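Re-run with default settings, no changes from the original entry. Doing this only to confirm the output is reproducible before filing.
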Amino acid sequence: MIQEPDSFDLEEAGSEPGTEDEPEATRRAAGVTESSRANRGWWDRNADEYQVEHGTFLGDDRFVWCPEGLDEVEAELLGPPEDLKDKDVLEIGAGAAQCARWLAVQGARPVALDLSHRQLQHALRIGGSFPLVCADAGTLPFADGSFDLACSAYGALPFVADPRLVLREVRRVLRPGGRFVFSVTHPVRWAFPDEPGPEGLTVSASYFDRTPYVEQDEDGRAVYVEHHRTLGDRVRDIVSSGLRLVDLVEPEWPAWNTAEWGGWSPLRGGLVPGTAIFVCERD
């Protein structure tokens, strides 16, 4: 759990612009511990900017699965909203807990978990009566069979070196018949530059190269790590972790969405899938 801060300043966690050297981008091996440490630090440093840049799109209490704007109100990937009442739900990679807040409005009992303490401070800033837990998704601090549902929007899994650790932990804390739905950057995007314009439409790397993308400081310490799994890898990870894949959703880019989000854009979204959402169940 995290405690309410005495005050909240959007500037206090970040450094002054230009005071840090730009990290070096490379491809190299990065294990579970290094990835977790690097990404915890990255999200703590960048949580303020992320919430300022994307907070309006996300809202305070919406459940949006991806930059395409797929909303759980319409998608019902966790089930009909009326069926969420009195359900225990774990949100993994919650950020400012917008999804958990929406779940609470539906009458569910959410728990919002994130690796980044600073992201959860934003959840405190917005407010809500549900628990906030700062922990690594690979070692969930909950008893077996604690939840009816689990969810992860906006890609917590790509930052994990071994996603099977997370999937097995999720299965452990789900009750029989429980559902886990998670969204990730669509695996095909790994082959393209992460650019929203025309330059992001030309293949520049092998889809089958699973070497992690790493940003590292001048001493070679990772400060950001992202891992790639092919579509087949994701399916095998789910099955080998004891879950059953019941649906795979690839949201199309809607005409109403004119926003760019990193490498997502109307141009790319109309031609190349940007997000994959896996709907899994525990038997």
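The first strand starts at residue 24 and ends at 27. The chain has seven helices and ten strands.
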